[in-house]
């Protein structure tokens, strides 16, 4: 049971985290903000029903759009606010869709994704 859970987390992290590029120029840095979430796998990981899956898809599409918009912003302070707002908006909607346990799993994956992409600093500063 625990093994299955660990493998699920690893699968989610690999799904969320793109291949890290060692080249640290501005273009690559900004590409970290472009999210491409596999909603089917996320729904499976969170064990949501069909109604919740639909809501999850809509919410994630809005989030991916907001993060894409942030990826286009060159001003770091403006981008940081955009990311913060996108994450807050996403968590607010997810909280209304997911159960407490699902939300806990989602937050863990989202935090790991943002941290691995170097985005978490934008939210916490």
- Helix-strand makeup class: mainly alpha
Q: Give the proportion of residues in helices.
A: over 70%
Report how far the terminal alpha carbons are from each other.
Answer: 38 Å
What radius of gyration results from the CA coordinates? 14 Å
Tell me the strand percentage band.
Answer: under 5%
Overall mean pLDDT: 79
Beta strand count: 0
Output the number of helix runs. 7
Low-confidence stretches: 17-27
Largest sheet: none
Elements, N to C (H/E): HHHHHHH
What is the global morphology?
globular
Summarize the entry for a quick read.
This protein is an all-alpha fold and 125 residues long.
Features:
single chain, 125 residues, mainly alpha, 7 helices, 76% helix, 0% strand
Topology:
Blueprint: H1 2-16, H2 26-31, H3 39-46, H4 50-71, H5 76-97, H6 100-116, H7 120-124
Structure commentary:
With 125 residues, the protein is an all-alpha fold. 76% of the residues lie in helices and 0% in strands. The protein contains seven helices and no strands. The chain is globular. About 9% of the residues have low confidence.
